[in-house]
Amino acid sequence: MAYILSPFSPEGFLLLVVVFVFQLHSNGYFPTYEMLCLGRLTAGPPVAWPTHTAHGACAIRHESIGACAHAAVDSTGVVYMACGSLVERRSFYPPLLRYKYSAVKDTIDAAIYVWDPSTDDVTRLELRGDAAAIPDLVVNGFDVVPDPADDSVRVLFLGNHQDRHGSVTVFRHAVGSGVLDFVGDLSEPLVHTTHALAATSATSFYVSNDHFYRSGFGRFVEDQLGPMPWSSVAHCQLTSVGGLNVTCETKAIGLAHAAGLALVDGQLLVADSKLGHVAIYDVEPSSHNLTLARTVPLGMSVQGMADVGTTGDVLVAAVPTLDTLGPGALDGDDPAEFGAAFVLSATDGFQTPHQIFADAVAGANTGYVALSPETLVGFSFARNGIQVCQI
C-alpha cells in the first residue's frame, strides 16, 4: 500500500465518519474502503485442518502463578514466563480494554517466573533496583537474549502496559539466580500498544504494536470498523550504556493487527491476527529495514510465535477468530473453545503451515513453546497455569 491516510488528519476523521455510516448500512462491509486508502483488508483463503479434538496427553500445571501472557525457552532449557492475576486483569489490562488502574494500583502482582522442566520447579524472580523507578509489570510479550559480554547473563525486554502509556521495561538476569536486576523503563512514541518483541541484540529489538490507538474513539474504530491498516512494527536501539535512552523507527506498516514475532535466519515473521496470516519480511542487517517477501495464510487468527530451537522452524499458535479473544475472555466468557498449533518450516522458506496439534480441552492457547518435537507447552493470558502436552 503506497499511502495510508492518517486518522489524525481532518480528512482522515471525515473518512472515518463516512466509513462508519456506510458500515451501518452494509452489514459490515464497504467495498470502497480500499479506494479511501483506509484499506478494508481481507484475509487469505482458509487452510484445511482436522476436527477440533485434543491430540496426546495434556495437563494443566502451576495454576498458582496466574495466567501467563508469554513464555520463552532459554538455551539452558529453562522457560521464562510472564504471568499475572486474572482477577486484576479484569480491572486493568489495556490490551483488552480494561483501564481501571485505580482498582489494582496497590496490589498488582504480575511477575516473571522461571520454570525448569527437568525438575518441574518454578521460581518467581525478585525485582532488584530502585523501587521508585521500577514500574508495575503488566506484560504482554517479551524476549530474552544472552549478554555477549557475559554468557551467564540474560537481558529481558518486556512489553509493558502501564497506567497511561506503553513501554519496554529492561532487566538483566544471572542464569540460576532468583533475581531480576532493573536496567530501565523505555518510553518512546513508537512503542504504544506493545504486543510482542524480538531482540536483534542485547541493546536492540523489534516491537509490534497491535493497534494505532491505545483507547478512546480511535480504538473503537479499529476494533469495530476494521480491519484498519494502522498496526505497525518498529525497531528500537538503546543509545546509552545504562539503557535509559532509546530511539525507534517504524519498519513495517499496513498491518491490521501485528501480534507475535519471530526472528529467524535473516527474516522477521509477523503474525497478523486480524487477517489470519503470517507476514514474512526480509531483514536488512545494518539498517534493520524490512521488505515484505510474502504472506502465508492460516485461515485462523494467528497469535504468538516462537523459534523452535536449533531447527529454525517457527511454532505458531492460532484460534478461530480474533473476536473470540475479546474482553470477555477475562471473565471466563471466552467462546474460543479450541485452538491449534502450526509449524512453519525453515526447509521450505516458511511457506507451508503444518498443523501439529489441536486442543478442545482447556480452551485456546495464545502461544506455545516447544521443549522437544514431542512436548508442547501452551499458555494463555486468560487461563491460569501452563498446559503441557505430549503430542
Report what the structure shows.
The protein has 391 residues and is mainly beta. It folds into two domains: 40 residues, no CATH class; 350 residues, TolB, C-terminal domain (Neuraminidase), CATH 2.120.10. The chain is built from three helices and 27 strands. It has a five-stranded mixed beta sheet, with no helix packed on it. The protein has a four-stranded antiparallel beta sheet with strand order 1-27-26-25, with no helix packed on it. Strands 2-3-6-7 form a four-stranded antiparallel beta sheet. Strand 11 and strand 12 form a beta hairpin. The termini are far apart. The relative contact order is 0.15.
Structural key phrases:
five-stranded mixed sheet; four-stranded antiparallel sheet; mainly beta; 391 residues
Number of helices in the DSSP assignment: 3
Total individual domains: 2
Taking Cα atoms only, what radius of gyration do you get, to the nearest Å? 20 Å
Order of helices and strands: HEEEHEEEEEEEEEEEHEEEEEEEEEEEEE
Low-confidence segments, ≥5 residues, pLDDT <50?
A: 1-5, 18-54
CATH level-four homologous superfamily name of the largest domain: TolB, C-terminal domain
The residue fraction in helices comes out at under 10%
Mean pLDDT: 78
| Distance from first to last alpha carbon | 41 Å
Strand content: over 45%
| Total beta strands | 27
Major beta sheet summary: 5 strands, mixed
Q: Output the structural class.
A: mainly beta
